[in-house]
Amino acid sequence: MGYGVVTAISLMSLNISPAAVSASIHTAEMFASGASGYHHYRFGNVNKRLFKVLLIPGVLGAITGAYLLSKFGETYAAYVKPLLAVYLLLLGVRIISKAFSQPGPRQKHKKLGLLAAAGGFLDSFGGGGWGPLVTSTLIAGGRTPQYVIGSVSVTEFFVTFASAVTFFATLGISHWQIILGLIVGGVAASPLAARLAGRIPVRWMFVGVGLMVIVWSVWALRKVFM
Questions:
Q1: Where are the alpha helices (DSSP H) in the chain?
Q2: Using CA atoms, how far apart are residues 216 and 89, in angstroms rounded to an integer?
Q3: Which of 6, 17, 28, 197 could form a disulfide with 182 if both were Cys (CB 3.0 to 4.6 A apart)?
Q4: 125, 22 Cβ separation under 8 angstroms
């Protein structure tokens, strides 16, 4: 959780257009999420029923978000970029708040499809958000972090694949150096992340990701308004 959010706010601080940021992230994330999903499946971290419920709505949300950003992101970049920076800042605050909230009894989520669709849309349109939104919501509902992280990670491969294909069809592919760097880093880190999932305190995972997102968001907003 946090790959898309952290890389999105990092690339936005380099004055890359929102559409190019999200397209680059999702092209690279196909490989990173594929490796991550494979290792989670290998280590037994996947709830197949949860995966099936999240899959189709997440993919449809991702396609919608990617299409809208590719059509309107460049035209309204001056407005979209600060909005996305604020959105990512709020995600960072949400992640940290989840770190210090105690999961209650397990709750039955009746709108998992809507949650997945929103996560897929915001992930494509904002460059990140699938993990922070979907993972944190399910964990806060009392589900076992190990299986939530694994199931959401496997689903993320299909979400990012749908997003990347949509961007490729509408924008083509650019910024190969950025994409290559993201692929190498993401694939290299995925086995370690999958092995550590469920073995270190969820609180400190949330705090680390949340702080990184907040710092980069504030930095991006400073560059936009100053």
A1: 3-12, 18-42, 48-72, 77-99, 112-126, 130, 136-140, 145-171, 176-196, 202-225
A2: 8
A3: 28
A4: yes
Amino acid 110: pLDDT: 67
Q: What is the 3-state secondary structure (H, E, C) of 151-208?
A: HHHHHHHHHHHHHHHHHHHHHCCCCHHHHHHHHHHHHHHHHHHHHHCCCCCHHHHHHH
Determine contact, residues 94/39, Cβ cutoff 8 Å. Answer: no
Q: Report how far residue 54's alpha carbon sits from residue 148's, in angstroms, rounded to the nearest whole number.
A: 11
Structure pTM? 0.71
Cα dihedral sign for 179, 55, 206, 83? positive
Q: Which residue, 63, 37, 11, is CA-closest to 194?
A: 37
- How many CB atoms are closer than 10 A to CB 45? 24
Q: Are 152 and 130 contacting, i.e. CB atoms less than 8 angstroms apart?
A: yes
CA separation for the pair 129, 121 (Å, rounded) = 9
Residue 180 pLDDT: 79
CB 77 within 8 A of CB 18: yes
Q: Which of 24-33, 39-48, 189-198 has the highest mean pLDDT?
A: 39-48
